[in-house]
Queue: 2 jobs
Job 1
Amino acid sequence: MLPGQQQEPPAAAANKSNRKDPPLIQCADLILPWLTPRELANISSTCETLSQISKSITLRRTLDASRFLEDHPIPFLNPNNQHPYAYFLYTPSQLLPSQSPLRQPWGSQLDRDSLGRHRGSSACKLNEPGEVLRGCDSGPATPHRGTGDSGKGVGGCDCDCEGCEEGGTGWEFLGVEEMGIMTECGPGCGCGLECSNRLSQRGVSVKLNIVRDGKKGWGLFADQMICQGQFICEYAGELLTSEEARKQQQIYDELASGGQFSSALLVVREHLPSGKACLRINIDATKTGNVARFINHSCDGGNLATVLVRHTGSLLPHLCFFASRNIKEGEELTFSYGDIRVRSKGLQCFCGSSCCFGTLPSENT
Ligand SMILES: C[S@@+](CC[C@H](N)C(=O)[O-])C[C@H]1O[C@@H](n2cnc3c(N)ncnc32)[C@H](O)[C@@H]1O
């Protein structure tokens, strides 16, 4: 049971006593979820009612980082309670910066009712870059849903592409430092999200939580037993050009030098057999991302394998995490951020593995 889960939310208590409040106060529970933690703190200091509503919003934010966009709530667990949650905007999949919302409601009483249980229902969901937030008002986001009675394909769809007939291609794990590669059905296929060859596009289905550590900050943990090969999540965030990534990295490095700041900009290079990089993808989950932004580094490679998943008919691959071995409930999910350390005074590594290098990997972006 999560802290405070059985208590009456302060907003409910506040609502009871609020019936005669001015309309602005009555609307506060609709407006305040759009605010950042700093804005919430400022508004809390103006009156007791707004303070109570802010507290209930904070509580609801701690209960689900995913805003009901994934199958299960992904709570923040923080024993010392000084940092109840990390603030960021949520996207279940990668998107272009121009598609990234400026604000997003989080912690509203209405979230569960209005967004649905998870993104497979009537939730707003994101798809390929250029096709954002489909399904907000129009029900399930499966534009090519099959009839299921044609006898073709799997999972009840009528797509006849090779991937569907094979019922998923699986992934090939190439080793800790090498990336697996996998192809799924995508916009170029006739099938919908229910197709069994679109596993990673249905979002996070394993139970996870986000735990605060005094040295590493937040980390992503398994809240159930996870079997080797199971899909965990995509690394979702804003897709940057390499020039944008370099500029952002400089800004993040400056902020990190002041302490209390964690960036989540990941540079993925796909290599040719010759060893030359042939594709570079920059995914920045610092402002907008999903729970993968909380995955910490481990020098021993951790328990996650990174796999580049291509969707048929889509140009850019998606970086996804799969369990590289069986993972016990309560274990932290980690992977290796790389093996290059260009900065002499890199950030100290607290992975705790026997082969710990002492500093976190760092590359020139
Ligand atoms: C992608 S974020 C991971 C989530 C982060 N811990 C947070 O609180 O948001 C990467 C940052 O986490 C921290 N981190 C990740 N792995 C670490 C490790 N093994 N030791 C120390 N800090 C780590 C570093 O600050 C790094 O820049």
Note: The chain has a mean pLDDT of 80.
Job 2
Amino acid sequence: MATLFTDLFDTPVIPGLSSGEDIVDREEEADLIARIDAEALSPFRFQGWLGKRVTRSFGWHYDFDGGALAEGEPLPKWLLPLRRRAASFADLGEDTLEQALLIRYDPGAGIGWHRDRPVFGHVVGISLGAEATMRFRRRRPDGFLRTSAPLAQRSIYHMAGEVRHEWEHSIAEMDETRWSVTFRSLANGAVPDGR
Ligand SMILES: O=C(O)CCC(=O)C(=O)O
Ligand SMILES: [Fe+2]
């Protein structure tokens, strides 16, 4: 199946990265955006800095200030049908996507270079509102290998394997508002009591 992230020969641009278009329709998109905006979103905190994007997580909360994973509030009911679709797209059991992160990027907000925390496993993201470009880079002895992929409105992506663990990703500041919902599984051993 050809996806946004495949080349002419249907090879993923980066192994482990796949995407699909129109995972929700326009009406569902408008409803999800209203639901996200109705949640108490707060500026992303990182080691004392406040980011421009606003976020809220459910299921598990990774505290970037303290560097710890903590159990959070359960996923709200309105997110469950979207999680079901995300899990089906990524061929995962829906219960394995234990964390949900809501983000709103107001104009001028983006997300800097990072790899998602190792306590998480699969990352499945849904893009709402303005289209963005996700940039990818991987360090090589002689510099960075770079590529990018469009995050179309109402599309979904899945990061696992190489793209998830070997590459960093970022989104440049945008002029228009974008919302995303990302679902994550936990990595094996992320929770000390072994559950
Ligand atoms: O907004 C997105 O789709 C990506 C967010 C992201 O990279 C993250 O939360 O780690
Ligand atoms: Fe990320």
Note: The pocket of fe (ii) ion (ligand 2) is lined by residues 114, 116, 169 (CB under 6 Å).
